[in-house]
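Thread: assembly with ligand

MN 10:42: here's the input set. Chains plus the small molecule as SMILES. Want everything predicted jointly, not piecewise.
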Amino acid sequence: MGFEGIGASVRRKEDVRFLSGKGNYTDDINRPGQLYAVIKRADRAHAKINSINIAAASAAPGVVKVFVGDDMAADGVGGIPCGWQIHNQDGSPMAEPAHPAIATGKVRHVGDPVAVVIATTKQEARNAAELLEIDYTDLPAVAHLTDAVKPGAVEVHDGVAGNICYDWAIGDKAVIDGVFANAHKVVKLELTNNRLIPNAMEPRVALGDYDTSSGEFTLYTTSQNPHVIRLLMGAFVLHIPENKLRVFAPDVGGGFGSKIYHYAEEAIVTWAAGKLRRPVKWTADRGESFMSDAHGRDHVSTAEMAIDQEGHFLGLRITTLANMGAYLSTFAPAVPTYLYATLLSGVYKTPVIYCNVKAVFTNTVPVDAYRGAGRPEATYLLERLVDVIAYETGIDKVELRRKNFIPADAFPYQTPVALQYDSGDYQTTLRVGLKNADWDGFEARRAEAKKRGKLRGIGISTYVEACGIAPSAVVGSLGARAGLYEVAEIRVHPTGSVTVFTGTHSHGQGHETTLAQLVVDQLGVPFDQVEVVHGDTAKIPFGMGTYGSRSLAVGGSAMVKAMDKVIAKGKKIAAHLMEASVEDIEFKNNTFTVAGTDKSKTLTDISLAAYVPHNYPIEELEPGLDETAFYDPKNFTFPGGCHIAEVEIDPETGVVAMVNFTAVDDVGRVINPMIVEGQVQGGVAQGIGQALMEGCGYDADGQLTTGSFMDYTMPRANDIPNMSVATENTMCTHNPLGSKGCGEVGAIGSPPAVINAVVDALKDYGVRHLDMPATGPKLWSIIQASTPRMAAE
Amino acid sequence: MYDFTYQKPSSLADAVKVLSGDMEAKALAGGQTFIPVLKQRLNKPSTVVDLSKLGLSGITVAGDKIVIGAMTRHADIASNPDIQAKIPGLAHQASLIGDEAVRHRGTMGGSLANNDPAACYPSAILALGGTIKTDRRSIAADDFFQGMFTTALEQGEIITSIELPIPQKSAYEKFRNPASRYAIVGVFVAKHASGVRLAITGAGQGGVFRHTEMEKALSANFSPDAINGIVTPADDLNSDIHASSEYRAHLIGVVSKRAVAKAA
Ligand SMILES: Cc1cc2nc3c(=O)[nH]c(=O)nc-3n(C[C@H](O)[C@H](O)[C@H](O)COP(=O)(O)OP(=O)(O)OC[C@H]3O[C@@H](n4cnc5c(N)ncnc54)[C@H](O)[C@@H]3O)c2cc1C
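BT 11:07: finished. Tokens for the full assembly:
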């Protein structure tokens, strides 16, 4: 056994079962007497439901029951709740239209559930679903942001005027307008952030079960946060007390945010299991995933920066339209406000910032947090704007960034948009990034590429993000309807092995390894004697799950606190056994010693004594060695860094090849460098996907034009270059680990670096900006439309 | 998928009998097109006739021809030394189809029978001037492809093998659809003693087609420069979210030149 504590690249222990087909995913779970649900979904974006004739479907072979929306409503089932309330500029709350689990009255997006058919086999349920007769009156639909806010646009929800969910702002409009009135120069950029479909490898699955003897419901589901689902579904939708509802999310094959939310299908199968007194399973097919998993991004913004003669940023003024889709998903309203606008200072000391966000309903799938959630949108906007400023002023783009950076000695740094950054060193990540990417050698590479007929470009993004979410009181004051602390229970067993019960949830991140390494480090227990348990509300204490790169910074911190409690109690037991005073007991490397003596007891000696308390200070101490700690973070954490992309464009086809990518990130304390590298690589791959390939399309009628992998372009391994991934870390100052988070940095920092590189490659063509994704045909059209400057000169 | 009966006959005659006697019966080769279609319930066959027991796979050199059994898998075509040596464009083309899994299941016969307008092989068979052999006749490539998803095959007719003349030179160049990886424009060029044939897949509204103007120029001078300035009208080309017809028209020129450069 080598070194397996903090800082060791221990191989991910969970991968053995994942890679050998032994994972226990939700669809692997089957309950006796299980029925299968198939959901009939709207094939149109907006329509009135006149009637649903279920007779033929109900009579079809194997069908046990067909339910429609009215059945759930009649049973008192509530709508799918939203977890966050944003207030308008005038102080009134956002529009929060009803979101029935199965549509009643109208359907509002392609994929909206209309009925559920439950049968003894999936095949029979499918057959019967085709026999449902739904009489619709089609209504005009609106899918795109700019169309939805046009005067006279069709209303997605009756009574939500102009489709505006909320009209929110941060900053002082009068002050920012004053800054702009007096500025030397204003640089303006209009840009979109393309809509993405998450496409986790494992489609969503929900299996509802009802135990007639105990009256307990169990929901097995593909969730990133089982307790949140239990709370939302139990309290708001099905009115099941939490003691009678267990939610279990076993192995989950990727989430990227899309499995945070409480989805209609979870409520449908749980409710149906209760009605039918039999387990009911629903498994999404891939097509359903495209039209029912919450999508990501989808912003249209106008950004303006006021600058002085030297290029110092004086003020930033932004208006953003953010697509909510047809209904509010769990976190949706928070994404374009508190996860986006509060990050608009970026790594820069811009003194005045104002941002107005209008969230807009459309006849599309709900949009919610997707890897990075709000921070990629903010980072893309800022880092594109900075490059455009460089383009317009002629100031070198690296120099422009440097001169506007928040200096390393300015931390803690209070931004004008609410956040206070605790630590960071942007000059260092930039310096190392430029060196690792051989920035200075680029022009030679460009010239060499030109000889091969290729247009080579380099792009940089210097970014910060806010994760480790989040201080409960802060988010509460901002409209969150939940706390965002985390919890851990450390159970030292009689023989000294340890089980960790964490409220976070692993769906690919490798928690079973990383969190075990914390135990190795702090308690000195061998790695293979540590088990990490997550995902089951029947086992773990009430935790908030995994998203916003919070598992280590918040969940790991809770573990540290719980282990401190274990050590403190262990010392008392050790003091008793070794007849010493507690103050003299030291704990290190799994061993309690009496300072200045050779007396010692291992953790196993102590745990055995704790569970077999024959010789034990029973008057003062309870038996057992099992401690729980809750940890509410004092602040967000602020990873940041520098991403540099290098591309080559084939001018004959417009196709972009990623040729180099360099990431230098500050993620705070690193527990497992290999896992950090993997997380950054994965995030960057998603960022490259967004920048060059991915884009969810809807036509004017609200039909999804990218409803399968035949049309939705996912990045593949051979689209991703070998990457140079490094860290230059400053410690988080307010959590015990010093860790910041690494799960989203790749997806946040990389898209603007890629687009900046594409624009740089096209610099002879007079390109100032282009929107993602930078596809071949798009670039080819641009190249066709512009005569190279050099040729014209 | 809907329920169906499954049969795996061991003689060609039996297979033809089942397929000819029942309009709703369908042949199954590698299943790489057919099974996804069944899973999406876009087809409702009464009987699925598995062709894998008919002994229709294998690659043989017969004089100046290579004969490929209809059930020969893409992976076997890509890795076959004779094909690599004699029709390198075809070996390369097969290696670009789908992914490993698709190449180890999908067959040449299945691909040709399906005649997907974005499929690769139709361009090779047409440019090579191949002959499609069936249980009842021989069909020249020029007569076989009859528009997208349409071929000269009759109800129940089974492709048994494909006969390909060995050209002097050959190459395939594929511009992939970034999502599906099928061809947006695929160009197969073959230089025969009798002249050059160049076929284009992925682009045409009517499926694979020969570019006669380019063929003429290349027959006179087999070099990329020979087709400089040949403009392909966009009118009859496909247009979709991945590529407009104008983009495809432009790509035909670029991709053809690259194919010729590779072959020359
Ligand atoms: C992910 C993916 C990517 C792909 N990418 C490409 C690509 O890049 N390029 C490309 O060209 N193709 C691609 N394909 C298609 C692939 O090449 C298929 O293998 C091929 O189109 C069909 O061959 P098959 O053997 O699988 O036939 P099947 O799917 O079994 O059959 C297809 C059709 O042909 C009929 N048929 C089959 N064999 C015969 C026969 N001998 N005689 C008469 N009728 C017959 C069947 O009845 C059916 O109607 C891809 C497929 C997938 C799933």
